[in-house]
Amino acid sequence: MITTIVVDIEGTTSPTSSVREDLYGYTRERLPAWLAENRTGAAAPILAAAKAQAGRPSADTDEVAATLRGWLDSDVKAESLKAAQGLICAEGFRNGALHGEFFADVPPALRAWHADGLAVYVYSSGSVRNQQDWFTFARGGELASLVCGYFDLSTAGGKREASSYEKIAGAIGVSGDRILFLSDHPDELDAAVAAGWHAIGLARPGEPNPPRPPHRWVDTFADIDPSAE
Ligand SMILES: CSCCC(=O)C(=O)COP(=O)(O)O
User: Fold this and answer.
1) 121 C-alpha vs ligand 1 centroid, how far in Å?
2) Average confidence (pLDDT) over 202-229
3) Which residue of 14, 22, 164, 175 has the smallest Cβ count within 10 Å?
4) Among its keywords, does the record have Transferase (predicted)?
5) pLDDT given for residue 226 in this prediction
6) Residues with Cβ within 6 A of ligand 1?
7) Tell me: the pLDDT tens digits for 12-66?
């Protein structure tokens, strides 16, 4: 019996375009100034991690900003970039420039699962901070009250690793065979199944990741019945 649902964000709850155009665009524009202004504070661990990952220990903040912008452009899911994105976008969510964007079928499904007593968690490459803001400042009304918790690359690990799903199951204290994972990415579904989870793929019109066997694929949360898993 499924007691817990874990959802991916990009391509699953939300259009890829809303992440890449809105969040990446907002971050891209503000990265150089934000890194420079916060280099001895919130940006310090981000600068250190990005320099280490890039193999450029003596890079200055301008060079790190250019590196992080390059990672945004090629969608590198690096922890340091995602941490910066979460902190930079926090201001945009609070001043009304940014909203969490969700496919129309997602809020009613989350409400129904919550009303049925299912626990909903989020696991995304975006930082926990960014995820919380995405659900809190959802266009059309907050959705964070429907979510029990959030996991990201720093708290769970990479999304294509079975060990990350084992770690999440351990952290929430639920056996994998009671957890249903929803994602648009076949490699992530493979990893969740390898950890003993149930998994359903989202293949939404216009989204980039093609479906792949052996998973079941749907194009809307309305077609997901956790009690039938
Ligand atoms: C709204 S949280 C930020 C989303 C993000 O930056 C991202 O890379 C989404 O990746 P996902 O793991 O949800 O596909």
Assistant:
1) 14
2) 97
3) 175
4) no
5) 97
6) 8-10, 19, 23, 77, 82, 85, 124-126, 130-131, 134, 159
7) 999 999 999 999 999 999 999 999 999 999 999 999 999 999 999 999 999 999 9
**Could you identify the atom of ligand 1 that is nearest to the CA of residue 133?**
1
Could you tell me if 136 and 170 lie in one domain?
yes
Backbone φ, ψ for residue 38 (5° rounding): -115, 20
Helices 79-94/24-37 angle, 10° precision: 100
What is the identity of the amino acid at 117?
G
From 122, 125, 153, mutation site for ligand 1 pocket: most ligand atoms within 8 A of C-beta: 125
pLDDT tens across 122-163, in order?
999 999 999 999 999 999 999 999 999 999 999 999 999 999
Write the CATH number for 59.
1.10.720
Residue 94 CA to ligand 1 centre (angstroms): 19
**β partners of residue 180:** 5, 198
Q: 160 CB contacts (<8 Å, ≥6 apart)?
A: 185, 187, 188, 190, 191
The pTM assigned to this predicted structure is: 0.97
Closest residue by Cα to atom 1, ligand 1, is 131
Ligand 1 atom closest to the Cα of residue 9 is: 13
Over the stretch 91-124, which tens digit does the pLDDT of each residue have? 999 999 999 999 999 999 999 999 999 999 999 9
Q: In the listed set 95, 114, 142, which residue is the last one of a domain according to the structure? A: 95
For residue 95, the model assigns a pLDDT of 98
| Residue of 19, 93, 133 best suited for mutating to test ligand 1, as the one with most atoms within 8 Å of CB | 19
